[in-house]
Amino acid sequence: MKNLISVVGPTGIGKTRLAIDLANHFKTEIISCDSRQFFKEMKIGTASPSEEELAEAPHHFIGNLSVKDYYSIGQYEEDALKKLHELFEKYDTVILVGGSMMYEKAVLEGLNDLPEANEENQRKLQEMMDSEGIEKLQEILRELDPEYYSVVDFHNHRRLLRAIDVIWQTQKKYSELIAVSQDSRDFNVIRIGIEAPREELYDRINRRVDIMVEKGLLEEAKELEPFKHLTALNTVGYAELFKYFDGIWDLDFAISEIKKNSRRYAKRQLTWYRKADDIHYLQLGYSQHDFDHLIEWISGEFQSKL
Questions:
Q1: Which residues are annotated as a binding site for ATP?
Q2: Domain ranges in the chain?
Q3: Which residues of the chain have pLDDT under 50?
Q4: What is the CATH topology of the domain spanning 119-179?
Q5: pLDDT, tens digit, for every residue of 76-95?
Q6: CATH of segment(s) 2-111+183-305
Q7: What is the chain written as a DSSP string?
Q8: Residues in the annotated binding site
């Protein structure tokens, strides 16, 4: 039986480093399930692994697309499983890493056969949004499905439209529909998380935004401004800077909003992961001793699943 180790946790907690350490230990490769790191033009704002990090272990699904490409979670599921199948020909263990909760879920469990978009519902919702703002959609979803509302990126109107449309069509909560596991996967899964006190995590996120700005986030966002209408760019770190370029916000405020929205996203990720009872946690700033201990634990898990 093959093994997939999935490294999870909120944004900015250090998943990349742990994934590389694990890949080096097991002499294997890494599959990313960070949906924002797929886009090659968004390296700085998505904290994609550096050239040095990419050289330490082979990575897949990093910078493999352009923001102009349409790419769905369903396509990712198919591509990731195909890549996993190839890698399992060579290795007994492969590493999956990323904080995009639904993308990890797609690999581990599969997506569900949800209904196609209903044009009438979409039109009605679009009209509501045009007249009453995205807040109206947020309010509807919060009432219909508080569980999904607590983890969805509620600034992404497409996600809201999709969820409400599916709920209206099926008369079931979206969170329940996506929780039903599809076909079982023919590999073992071990999920490893990194945790830290919330203040420490928020400090790291704030610092990381400052580093992104130093590395040239403004220049990167400026080059992407012509594509700001695309879904890929409706992302923390870019959406705020587009408002600065449009003269709506000043720079200091835009950067403080990036920090605030990054912390909010981390909070949603923490809510999602807290519901799982199968994540084995390592503390932020783990020592070599902690890492060795983790490897021992993983080996024990592998043995028990034989």
A1: 9-16
A2: 2-111+183-305, 119-179
A3: 181-182
A4: Histone, subunit A (1.10.20)
A5: 998 999 999 999 999 999 99
A6: 3.40.50.300
A7: -EEEEEEE-STTS-HHHHHHHHHHHHT--EEE--TTTTBGGGTTTTTPPPHHHHHHS-EESSS-B-TTS---HHHHHHHHHHHHHHHHHH-SEEEEE-S-HHHHHHHHT----PPPPPHHHHHHHHHHHHHH-HHHHHHHHHHH-HHHHTTS-TT-HHHHHHHHHHHHHHSS-HHHHTTS--SPPSEEEEEEEEE--HHHHHHHHHHHHHHHHHHTHHHHHHHHGGGTTSGGGSSTTTHHHHHHHTTSS-HHHHHHHHHHHHHHHHHHHHHHHHT-S-EEEEETT--HHHHHHHHHHHHHHHHHT-
A8: 9-16
